[in-house]
């Protein structure tokens, strides 16, 4: 079976050379815009491409406001600060995610609590979330208090795994009922929708990443989106050293961050955004080819986009029947120049997060981490 899959992937990419998981492509106005930025001398924290990128990105995802920052982790960090996550707070998230989600929570002095994902979306499970909140929390003065630690559960950060949108509309409703702020980690889900609404728009704030391996890249970069005008103004302010606008004076009114995206990166972003619709279409085509092929392969299931969701198919994923099959595929694919990797090690298994509270056994997260692999996903 493994050889059959490996041969199929090689035939798709028409090569015997190394096939990476996801390669960036620069076939549009990238060089032109980069030159323009260089010629303008505005390569750093001031420049027209930053404003333009923010405007065009907001329009693409359908948010009122977008604030460009240095990377996705910074976008998450600032989003959590704006959701008022502070020292000693707790934040609900999924164990099946990239470490940046938990690190951003930690930068605020808060602790993650791990809630299981569901099998269909591989994102935070609304049923597991509701169960935890019902059993383990109480409402005091409009705040959600964890019974076992007496701490405030301030926010919830679901993540759209590999670009498949999670049941974020249901999660939003639960959060609302329990007075918890919803911040979406939409780092992987640019171009993904739930019920026709772009991911990142369901809570107070959403965070995107433009790292080199994502659907589109700015080299390094991230974006905060929100519909709340006040939060947008605050986001811009605290990502730009909290400088009070003035022609020559240096006045800063709080301790803040130098998180603003440089103009050079934004130039790249404007160009990448132009080719994004085409890229998304090509990724969807590839996923269709995979889906059809895997229908006739035994013991392995291609992860299709969930019901009520449209996925960007950032990283195509296979689910093997058991752990042994997953391991043997990883071994054979990678030794045949076909890159393949498992999901991340679960967050609650990393040393720095191993003592964090878990909402139950996290059985689905564990099962997925032991059976799922990603396969090459660059459009062919
Ligand atoms: C990529 C990613 C991030 C972080 O983005 P960076 O731009 O690398 O900082 C955060 N969360 C998830 C789930 C990601 O995949």
Task: Quickly list its features.
380 residues; 11 helices; single chain; alpha/beta; 16 strands; 2 domains; Aspartate Aminotransferase, domain 2; globular; binds pyridoxal-5'-phosphate; seven-stranded mixed beta sheet
Task: Write a structural description.
The protein has 380 residues and is an alpha/beta fold. It folds into two domains: 2-26 and 275-342, no CATH class; 30-274, Aspartate Aminotransferase, domain 2. Helix content is 37%, strand content 16%. The protein contains eleven helices and 16 strands. The protein has helices at 2-13, 30-40, 48-61, 72-82, 100-107, 126-136, 168-177, 229-239, 263-294, 323-335, 363-371; strands at residues 65-69, 90-93, 111-114, 137-140, 143-146, 153-157, 181-185, 193-194, 197-198, 205-209, 222-226, 300-302, 309-310, 316-320, 341-342, 372-375. It has a seven-stranded mixed sheet with strand order 1-11-10-7-6-2-3, with helices on both faces. A four-stranded antiparallel sheet has the order 12-14-16-15. The chain has a three-stranded antiparallel sheet with strand order 9-8-13, with no helix packed on it. α7 links the parallel β6 (153-157) and β7 (181-185). α2 (30-40) runs antiparallel to α9 (263-294) and α3 (48-61) runs parallel beside α9. The longest helix is centred in the C-terminal third of the chain and has 32 residues, at 263-294. The chain is globular and about 65 Å long. It starts with a helix and ends in a 5-residue tail after the last strand. The model has no long low-confidence stretch (mean pLDDT 97). Bound molecules: pyridoxal-5'-phosphate.
């Amino acid at each position: 079976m493994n050889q059959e899959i490996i041969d199929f992937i090689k035939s798709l990419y028409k090569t015997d050379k190394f096939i990476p998981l996801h390669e960036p492509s620069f076939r549009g106005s990238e060089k032109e815009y980069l030159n323009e930025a260089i010629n303008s001398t505005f390569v750093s924290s001031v420049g027209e491409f930053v404003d333009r990128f923010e405007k065009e990105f907001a329009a693409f995802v359908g948010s009122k406001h977008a604030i460009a920052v240095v990377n996705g982790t910074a976008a998450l960090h600032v989003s959590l600060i704006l959701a008022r996550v502070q020292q000693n707070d707790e934040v609900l998230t999924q164990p099946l995610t990239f470490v940046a989600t938990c690190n951003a929570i930690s930068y605020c002095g808060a602790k993650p609590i791990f809630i299981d994902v569901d099998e269909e979306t591989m994102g935070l499970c609304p049923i597991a979330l509701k169960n935890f909140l019902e059993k383990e929390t109480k409402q005091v003065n409009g705040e959600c208090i964890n019974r076992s630690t007496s701490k405030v559960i301030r926010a919830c950060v679901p993540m759209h795994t590999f670009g498949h949108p999670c049941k974020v509309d249901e999660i939003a409703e639960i959060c609302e009922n329990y007075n918890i702020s919803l911040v979406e980690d939409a780092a992987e889900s640019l171009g993904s929708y739930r019920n026709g609404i772009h991911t990142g728009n369901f809570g107070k704030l959403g965070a995107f990443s433009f790292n080199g391996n994502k659907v589109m890249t700015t080299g390094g970069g991230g974006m905060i989106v929100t519909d709340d005008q006040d939060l947008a103004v605050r986001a811009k302010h605290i990502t730009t050293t909290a400088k009070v606008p003035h022609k020559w004076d240096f006045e800063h009114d709080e301790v803040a961050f130098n998180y603003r995206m440089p103009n050079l990166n934004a130039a790249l972003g404007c160009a990448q955004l132009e080719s994004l619709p085409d890229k998304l279409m090509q990724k969807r085509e590839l996923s269709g080819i995979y889906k059809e092929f895997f229908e006739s392969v035994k013991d392995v299931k291609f992860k299709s986009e969930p019901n009520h969701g449209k996925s960007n198919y950032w990283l195509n994923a296979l689910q093997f029947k058991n752990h042994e099959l997953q391991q043997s595929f990883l071994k054979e694919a990678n030794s045949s120049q076909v890159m393949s990797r498992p999901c991340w090690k679960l967050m609650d298994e990393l040393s720095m997060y191993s003592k964090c509270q878990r909402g139950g056994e996290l059985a689905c997260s564990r099962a997925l981490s032991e059976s799922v692999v990603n396969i090459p996903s660059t459009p062919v």
